[in-house]
Amino acid sequence: MEYEEVVETIVELFRKAETELSEDVLNAIKYAYENEESEIAKMNLKNILENVEYAKARKIPMCQDTGLPIVFVELGRELSLDFDLKSAIIEGVKRATAEIPLRPNAVHPITRENPGNNVGKCMPIVDIDLVEGDELKIAVMPKGAGSENCSALKMMLPHDVNKIKRFVIEVVKNAMGKPCPPIFIGLGIGSTFDGCAKLAKKALLRDVTKMNDFELEILEAVNELGIGAMGMGGKYTALAVLSEIGYCHTASLPVAVNIQCWANRRAFAVLR
Known about the structure:
Blueprint: H1 3-19, H2 23-35, H3 39-58, E1 68-76, H4 85-99, E2 125-131, E3 136-143, H5 145-148, E4 152-156, H6 164-175, E5 183-190, H7 193-203, H8 213-223, E6 238-246, E7 253-260, E8 267-271
Parallel strand pairs: 1-2, 5-6
Antiparallel strand pairs: 1-3, 3-8, 4-7, 5-7
Helix pairs in contact: 1-4, 2-3, 6-8
């Protein structure tokens, strides 16, 4: 495996994520469109589907907010690399920003200085896990600010376990139409303050059509809010609730809700 192969893979993954929705996400939106009863919500869902088709056909980003570059990596222990993996990912983000192109969203948090290439201190976000095997698995997730700004984390206490659903509902209710619903909800439960947020974001990589009973129960409760597509009312406020758990301290129960807009953008690759 060569440095340039990783760089080009990063570019192409962001290109795919920005211009095409994965089949599971697209099918979830289509299902909502086919079963929606509100005329206004149905119109909004139709507009979303037409926008997705237009973006794919012309290979242009489906949303003006092309997000911040987030990269999840699983690095096989048997894989030997003679280059710095993170440097290759950073170079890939720079090229993707220039070539696709992506909006340069990454700025200094205080001065708002913009380097123009989506690269800076702690950006892109690169999460690397060491796993068994000889493969390099890469997942990219461009994350826009409209939905990210509606996310929340709460340090609950152990006896609050029955309040998790209520917390998710509160977060979605406070967000209303701001995150461009119908949304996808990443739910992190456990770990630490920072680890819980990571769990919630990583949950959004899952197949959105596969939910357990706990997730379906929360999804049903969220959709009873009636916020609907683009916040204009309707049956489908959310299309999926996806959760991940991690062991936590005996005295705490961290819970994170990471909201994702209808454009649940991600792409995956495996290199050997």
